[in-house]
Specification:
The complex is a heterodimer of chains A (515) and B (373). By secondary structure, chain A is α/β, with parallel strands linked by helices. Chain A has 18 helices and 24 strands. Classes of the chains: A alpha/beta (515), B mainly alpha (373).
C-alpha cells in the first residue's frame, strides 16, 4: 500500500491556538479507495486536523499534498476545488431551504443569470440513485430527520465532485438503523473509488468499517493499526495511554423512597403532534431507570416536560412528593434539587461565546457563593471553574476560554461537570456520553453509579443500548409516546429490549412463537 | 488579564477604528470630487471641536445625549434586541420632564429637579416597555414596533404643544399661550433646571456627569450583576437561558425598559439642561445616532462612551468646518452613515483590509434575532 501515491497527505502539520497546541507535527496519508478511521481522545485534535485539510483553518506549520502535489488552501472553496468534501460534527445546512437549494449554495448552477433548480434536482436524483442516497430534492431541510440531513450533506459533497470525503463523528447523532444505512453508503462510495476519513468514538464502528486506523493523542500521531490486528481494548489503550475498563462494575441497587413520579403525562412535539400519550413511572432513591427506545419516540419530550422546558398537556410530575407539573426550570432545579444533562448541548446546555467558567454556573449564578444579592462574585466563579475543570478533566487552555472553542467532547464534559457537581436528589441525564471518548465514558459512567450509590434517583435516557444495559437497574422502553414496558435489568437481554424498541410487547411475542 | 481576553479586546477595537478611518477617507474623496479641500475641512472640524474652550464645551454638551441613547441601544443589544426606538423614548422622556419642569414653580430645586429628571426617565422606560411586552406576548418584532412607536411619540409630542388652529381647534395641553402661533412649551422653571458646571457662554451642565455615571452604572449592571448575566444569556442563547432558569420574557421586557429609561434620561437632560423647553424641532436624530454609537462602541459601555465622544466632536466641529472650508455640514451626516454601514457590516471592512475572519475564536457580539433558534 505504501508504494502508491496517497490521494491526500499532510506533512508535519502543527496548529497552535491561544494556549493550546491542537496538532503537533502530524503526518497522515490517505490512499485511494480507503476508509481511514481517526481515533483519539476528546481534544486530541481530530476536528482541527480535518478543518485544516478542509481549508477552514490555516496550519501554523506544515504542508498538504493532494495527489502528490503540494497545495495551499485559503478557504473551503479551495478544498472543494481540489475534490475534498467534509460533513461536520454539526451540520451546516440552512433549515428553511429545500435540499436542492442547500446543495446549490455556493456551487454555481446558474442558467442565464437564474438559478437552475430543476437541473440541480435532476442531478441530485442521479447521485442519490447511483449511491442509494435516498432524498427528495424538494423537501425542506428542517422537516428531515437528522439521518437524512446527513445524507444531504454527503450529497452536497458528492455534487461538488468530492473524491475525498471527511466525516467528523457522523454517527454520534444517528439511530442504529441510520448508522447501518450510513455504513452501506460508505461502502458503496468506497467501491466507486472514493477515499474517506471517518471519525468516531465508537470503537465497534471503527473496527467494523475501516481499513486502517490512526490514533491521535495530545495532537500527535501515536499509532497506526488495522481492524484485523486490533481489539476494542487495545484501541482504547492506544488512545488513552492506559488500560480502560469497558464494562461497568456496580453493586446491586438499594432503592429507597420515590423521588420522581410521573403520572399519565401527555405532551405535544414541536410540530404539534402528540409526543407523549400518557406516560407513567417512578424513579426511587438509589436506582437508575434507563429509558431505551429508537430516537423520536417521545424521549426528548419526556425529559423536556419533567425539566420544565416543555408544557405538559395532561398528567402530573412529582419531585420529592411535591407537584412540579409545569413548574419553571429554576424551581425544578433549585427547589426540586435536580440536575439535567440536556440532550442538545448546543441549544440548551451552554452559551458558546461565554467563558467555560460562566458556563459552569449557568444555572447557579444566582446562588451563593457565586452571587451576593445581585452582585456577582467573579473570584468564586473562577475558583469553582478551576476545581471542576480539574476534577472532570475538561481540556481547556483556561477557565476564561470561550466554551465554543473547546472540542465537542470537552463541551459535553463541561456540561456534565456542572450538572454532577452540586448536591442533588434527582439526576436527569439525556445522552450523557454523546461524543465522548472511551476513557471519559468510563469516568462518567462511574460518576453516574456513584451518584446512585449516594442515594440519588437517576433517570438515564440514551440511544446507546450498551449504555442502557451497562448502567440501568430497571429499563423502560418507549415506543410511539408510550412506555411499552419496564423490565428489571436481570430479566433484560439486548434482544428482548430490541424487540420492545420495535414495538413488540412481551405477551405479544408468545403469540408470534405460536404462529 | 488573560492573554486571550486581551487579544479579544484588541480585536474588538480593530473594526470600529478601521470603520472610522475608512469613513473619513471616503468623506475626503467625496469632498475632493465635489471640488472642496478635505484637509481644510477636517482641520476646521478638529478646530471647531477642540480648538477653543467654546469648542470643547460644545463637544462635551453634545456628548451626553449621544452617550445615553448609545447606551440605550447597547443594553438592548446585550439582550439580543434591536432598539430602533431610542428616538421615541427620548421624546417621551422630554415630554414627561418638561411637564414636571413647567409646573410646580414653588418647589425647592432638590425636589423639583429630581422629580423632573425621574419623570423623564420613567416616560422613556414606559415607552420602552411597550415593545418589550408586545414581543413577549404576541411575538411582534421589536424593530417594527419601536419604529411605529417613534412615529406615535413624535405625533403625540407635537400634539401636546400644538398651538391651536384658526378655526377654533384646541391647542395642546403643554402649549405656551404667550408663544402665539408657535408650537412650544413655556420655559422650564428655574428650580427644575440642571445647574451649570461652566455657565454661559460655555453652558456645560452637570447632566454630563450624570451621563458619565450612567456608563459606570451600566458597565456594572451588565458585567457584574445577576441581572446582567440574565440579559446577556438571553441575548446569546435564549434556549440556554430558559434551561438556566431565567425568565426569558421578563428579561426581554426589562432590557427594553432599561433601554427606554436611558433614552428617556437623554431627553430629560437635554430639556432640563440645554433647551429648557420643548418644541417639535428638538426631537432631532439623536435616537438614530445612538445606533451608530452603540455599534461603534461594540455595545461595551466604555466603548459607547468613546464613540459618543467622537460623534459629539463631529457634531460640534461642523459649524467651524463649514465656515472655514465652505464644505456643508451635510458631509458629517454622510460620514456618520458610512461609519454605521461599516460597523454594521464588518465583512466589508475585513474584506477591504484583508483581515481573516476570526473563525478560530467565537465572536462575542450577540446575535440580533430572538427566537430564530
Ligand atoms: N476554534 C478554536 N479556538 C481555540 N481552540 C480550539 C479551537 N478549536 C479547537 N481548539 C482546541 O484544540 C484542541 C483540539 O480540538 P479538536 O476539536 O480538534 O478535538 P477533537 O479531537 O475533535 O475532540 P472531540 O473528540 O472532542 O471532538 C482542543 O484543546 C481545543 O480546545
Ligand atoms: Mg471533534
Amino acid at each position: 500500500m505504501t508504494q502508491r501515491t496517497p490521494v491526500l497527505e499532510v506533512k508535519h502539520i502543527t496548529k497552535r491556538f491561544p494556549g493550546v497546541v491542537a496538532n503537533d507535527d502530524v503526518n497522515l496519508a490517505l490512499y485511494e479507495g480507503e476508509i481511514l478511521a481517526l481515533l483519539g481522545e476528546n481534544g486530541a485534535g481530530k476536528s482541527t486536523l480535518m478543518n485544516i485539510i478542509y481549508g477552514l483553518y490555516k496550519p501554523t506549520e506544515g504542508e498538504i499534498y493532494v495527489k502528490g502535489k503540494k497545495v495551499e488552501m485559503h478557504s473551503p472553496r479551495d478544498a472543494i476545488a481540489l475534490g475534498i468534501g467534509m460533513v461536520h460534527q454539526h451540520f451546516q445546512l440552512v433549515p428553511v431551504m429545500t435540499v436542492a437549494e442547500n446543495i446549490m449554495l455556493g456551487a454555481e448552477s446558474v442558467k442565464r443569470g437564474l438559478l437552475d433548480v430543476k437541473k440541480v434536482a435532476r442531478e441530485i436524483q442521479e447521485l442519490s440513485h447511483r449511491y442509494h442516497l435516498d432524498v427528495d430534492p424538494y423537501a425542506m431541510v428542517e422537516d428531515l430527520p437528522v439521518g437524512v440531513q446527513q445524507r444531504v450533506e454527503i450529497i452536497k459533497a458528492l455534487y461538488r465532485e468530492a473524491e475525498i470525503l471527511i466525516l467528523d463523528e457522523p454517527t454520534a447523532v444517528l439511530t442504529p438503523q441510520e448508522i447501518e444505512g450510513l455504513f452501506a453508503i460508505m461502502k458503496r462510495l468506497q467501491e466507486q473509488g472514493k477515499s474517506i476519513i471517518f471519525i468516531s468514538h465508537k470503537l465497534k464502528e471503527v473496527l467494523y468499517i475501516s481499513d486502517r486506523i490512526v490514533v491521535l493523542r495530545d495532537g500527535r500521531v501515536v499509532g497506526e493499526t488495522t481492524p484485523a490486528e486490533a481489539t476494542q481494548e487495545r484501541l482504547a489503550a492506544m488512545m488513552v495511554g492506559r488500560e480502560v475498563i469497558l464494562t461497568v462494575d456496580k453493586k446491586p441497587a438499594r432503592p429507597g423512597k420515590v423521588v420522581l413520579q410521573v403520572e399519565h403525562l401527555k405532551a405535544h412535539s414541536d410540530l404539534g403532534e402528540p409526543a407523549l400519550r400518557g406516560v407513567s413511572f417512578q424513579v426511587r432513591e438509589g436506582e437508575i431507570l434507563g429509558v431505551a427506545g429508537v430516537q423520536g419516540n417521545g424521549q426528548t419530550e419526556l425529559v423536556e416536560v419533567i425539566t420544565g422546558l416543555r408544557r405538559a398537556e395532561g398528567g402530573k410530575v412529582f419531585i420529592n412528593g411535591e407537584d412540579m407539573t409545569n413548574a419553571r426550570p429554576r424551581i425544578i432545579t433549585q427547589k426540586g434539587q435536580s440536575s439535567h444533562v440536556p440532550e442538545d448541548r448546543h441549544a440548551y446546555g451552554m452559551v458558546a461565546s461565554y467563558p467555560v467558567a460562566d458556563n459552569l454556573v449557568l444555572n447557579t449564578y444566582n446562588l451563593p457563593p457565586f452571587a451576593k444579592g445581585i452582585s456577582i462574585n467573579r473570584p468564586a466563579i473562577l475558583e469553582h471553574a478551576e476545581r471542576l475543570i480539574d476534577r472532570f478533566d475538561v481540556r481547556t487552555p483556561s477557565p476564561l476560554t470561550p466554551a465554543g472553542s473547546l472540542s465537542g467532547g470537552n463541551q459535553q464534559k463541561m456540561v456534565v461537570a456542572r450538572e454532577f457537581s452540586r448536591p442533588i436528589k434527582l439526576l436527569i441525564a439525556a445522552q450523557p456520553t454523546r461524543g465522548i471518548d472511551v476513557g471519559s465514558i468510563e469516568f462518567i459512567h462511574k460518576q453516574i453509579v456513584a451518584k446512585r450509590d449516594e442515594g440519588v434517583a437517576v433517570l438515564l435516557v440514551s440511544a446507546e443500548l450498551d449504555e442502557i444495559m451497562a448502567l440501568s437497574d430497571r429499563i423502560a422502553v418507549m415506543y410511539k409516546g408510550e412506555i411499552l414496558d419496564i423490565v428489571p435489568r436481570e430479566e433484560a437481554t439486548r434482544e428482548s429490549i430490541g424487540l420492545l424498541m420495535m414495538g413488540v410487547k412481551r405477551d405479544e411475542r408468545v403469540d408470534e412463537i405460536a404462529f | 488579564m488573560h492573554p486571550s481576553s486581551t487579544r479579544r479586546l484588541l480585536r474588538s477595537l480593530l473594526i470600529p477604528i478601521l470603520a472610522v478611518f475608512t469613513a473619513l477617507v471616503i468623506g475626503a474623496i467625496i469632498m475632493k470630487l465635489a471640488g472642496d479641500d478635505p484637509i481644510a475641512a477636517y482641520k476646521g472640524l478638529f478646530q471647531g471641536a477642540f480648538g477653543s474652550k467654546r469648542g470643547w464645551a460644545t463637544t462635551i454638551r453634545k456628548w451626553s445625549p449621544l452617550l445615553l441613547t448609545g447606551l440605550s441601544v447597547a443594553v438592548a443589544f446585550q439582550a439580543g434586541l434591536f432598539n430602533i426606538g431610542a428616538s421615541g423614548q427620548f421624546i417621551m422622556g422630554t415630554i414627561f420632564s418638561v411637564w414636571a419642569g413647567i409646573n410646580f414653580p414653588e418647589m425647592p430645586i432638590y425636589i423639583h429637579l429630581p422629580l423632573a429628571l425621574g419623570l423623564g426617565i420613567l416616560g422613556g422606560m414606559l415607552w420602552g416597555a411597550i415593545p418589550g411586552i408586545l414581543k413577549v406576548t404576541t411575538g411582534a418584532h421589536e424593530v417594527i414596533t419601536t419604529i411605529m412607536l417613534n412615529y406615535v411619540a413624535a405625533l403625540f409630542a407635537g400634539w401636546t404643544v400644538y398651538a391651536g388652529g384658526s378655526q377654533g381647534q384646541k391647542p395642546g395641553p403643554l402649549w405656551d399661550p404667550t408663544a402665539k402661533a408657535i408650537s412650544r412649551t413655556p420655559p422650564v422653571v428655574e428650580s427644575a433646571r440642571i445647574p451649570f458646571i461652566f455657565g454661559p457662554p460655555y453652558r456645560v451642565h452637570w447632566g454630563v456627569v450624570l451621563a458619565l455615571l450612567a456608563i459606570l452604572l451600566m458597565a456594572w449592571l451588565i458585567n457584574k450583576t445577576t441581572i446582567g448575566f440574565e440579559l446577556r444569556t438571553v441575548g446569546r442563547n435564549f434556549k440556554a437561558a430558559k434551561y438556566a432558569g431565567i425568565r426569558v420574557g421578563w428579561t426581554v421586557i426589562l432590557a427594553m425598559m432599561l433601554a427606554g429609561a436611558l433614552a428617556g434620561m437623554a431627553g430629560a437632560i437635554e430639556t432640563l439642561g440645554v433647551n429648557f423647553k420643548f418644541a417639535p424641532e428638538f426631537s432631532g436624530s439623536v435616537g438614530f445616532e445612538g445606533i451608530t454609537v452603540a455599534l461603534l462602541g461594540q455595545t461595551n459601555p466604555f466603548g459607547v462612551g468613546l464613540a459618543a465622544f467622537f460623534l459629539a466632536s463631529l457634531a460640534a466641529g461642523g459649524a467651524k468646518m463649514q465656515f472655514d472650508s465652505g464644505v456643508s455640514t451635510d458631509i458629517i451626516q454622510v460620514i456618520n452613515a458610512l461609519m454605521l454601514a461599516f460597523v454594521a457590516a464588518p465583512a466589508i471592512v475585513r474584506w477591504l483590509y484583508r483581515i481573516r475572519k476570526p473563525a478560530e475564536e467565537e465572536e462575542g457580539v450577540p446575535k440580533i434575532s430572538w427566537g430564530g433558534g
